[in-house]
Specification:
The chain is mainly alpha-helical. Helices cover 74% and strands 0% of the residues. Pfam families: MFS_1.
């Protein structure tokens, strides 16, 4: 069991690294190259690829990978490939300037986003199917903590190291590490597969969604609305979060140097990684003690309040303590809320159709993320930071209306498969 837990944690860390290179880390690299906030916000268009994965994920559950299928199950084979391919792509990109090699750059980014969007539901479904009713929340939380650990440690260490070496070197080293770390997939037990894969249209594209609707038809609209609304605040702030602190450092010249601000931001984000993990652990505790509905309510309120330190920071610029506090509060609350969200999202699915149903739920989440995230740079540019953070505080609160429609003690029906 210890080896199994280690495997879950390690693979989740690797998936986070695959996620950061074409995402947040890329935004930091481009921000250092003085790319505008508008352009950084447009990176969120990649969420449309995440939303579209519902069209191809079912195929990856049934098509065997030559050679790999002899030592791994179908799902694990594709997870492994989806980790290796973007790692190699970004290793190649690390020898080029992204602004001078735009076609290669965009191609690698789009390919990496495709791989990540495919790998995500496959990996989460794999963890889910290998768990049981007794340890499901523990395994899913462990996966989320592993993801958060990889996301924040890798991402924030990258920002810190970028003070001393170029982003090209960072991408080169991290890509090599990811190629090696991808082999942790071989530590997981092989999933038992059906002898014959059913390639019928009905089995791949009708049955998974019919099964989902039949199980949750009493509150289906509320579930879809929650998937759409709950993480809008994260997706609005994330593309321009680093850019905000870069501008803050420039405005504080004479009080705090721009370089000191970068160190302060990096250190706070690294510490924030551990507070995010603490938030995930707290979420796991409350999930075992209270209902999903209660945890969603608390998460939505805390999410909204997490923007208050950013508003104070924008109006009381002299406080270094507030800079650190704003980042730590935001990361802690995000850790708590995201764990509640993803454990609930996975638990809604049947194990037999987990990948397809996770892709369905991600459709609503990713579509909202793409719409809001792609506008974040424009919103920050035209609203100014004060009104931008007020918008961020309010944007996810409508989720409370749909939480009301859920059963008081929400119990997810278990699949018989």
């Amino acid at each position: 069991m210890v080896l199994y837990n280690f495997s879950v944690f390690s693979l989740a860390m690797v998936s986070a690294m695959v996620y950061t290179l074409p995402g947040h880390t890329l935004g930091y690299w481009l921000a250092d190259l003085k790319v505008s906030k508008k352009a950084l916000g447009l990176l969120s268009i990649s969420y449309f690829i995440h939303a579209s994965k519902i069209l191809w994920v079912p195929f990856f559950e049934r098509i065997k990978v030559p050679f790999l299928n002899k030592i791994l199950d179908i799902r694990s084979s594709w997870i492994f490939l989806m980790m290796i391919i973007p790692s190699i792509g970004f290793f190649i990109l690390s020898f080029r300037n992204p602004l001078q090699n735009q076609y290669i750059f965009v191609s690698v980014v789009l390919l990496s986003v495709f791989c990540m969007s495919t790998m995500d539901p496959l990996l989460r479904a794999h963890f889910y199917k290998l768990s049981n009713d007794q340890n499901i929340k523990k395994i899913l939380t462990l996966g989320n903590i592993g993801f958060r650990t990889g996301l924040y440690l890798a991402l924030n260490i990258y920002v810190l190291i970028s003070n001393f070496v170029s982003w090209n070197v960072i991408y080169r080293i991290s890509s090599l590490f990811m190629i090696v770390a991808s082999f942790t997939i071989f530590l997981l037990p092989r999933e038992k597969e059906e002898e014959e894969s059913n390639f019928s249209f009905k089995e791949m594209f009708i049955e998974p969604y019919r099964d989902f609707v039949s199980k949750h038809k009493q509150y289906l609209v509320s579930v879809i609305a929650i998937m759409f609304l709950f993480r809008l605040q994260d997706k609005l702030i994330s593309p321009v979060f680093y850019c905000y602190f870069v501008e803050l450092g420039e405005s504080l010249r004479g009080t705090i140097s721009a370089q000191h601000m970068k160190y302060l931001f990096s250190a706070s984000k690294i510490i924030g990684g551990f507070t995010a993990i603490a938030g995930s652990l707290a979420s796991n505790y409350y999930l075992n003690k209270y209902s999903y509905k209660y945890n969603f309510f608390i998460s939505a309120i805390l999410h909204s309040l997490s923007c208050l330190p950013l508003l104070l920071l924008n109006n009381f610029l002299q406080s270094q303590y507030l800079i650190v506090g704003a980042i730590l509060i935001e990361k802690t609350i995000r850790g708590f809320a995201s764990n509640t969200f993803y454990v609930y999202q996975t638990s809604l699915c049947s194990k037999k159709y987990a990948s397809s149903q996770l892709a369905l739920l991600s459709l609503s989440e990713s579509f909202g993320s793409a719409l809001i995230g792609s506008c974040s740079g424009y919103a920050a540019e035209y609203l100014g930071w004060n009104y931008f953070f007020i918008l961020a505080a309010l944007i996810s609160l409508p989720v409370l209306l749909f939480l009301k429609a859920l059963p008081k003690n929400l119990v997810v029906k278990k699949s018989k498969t």
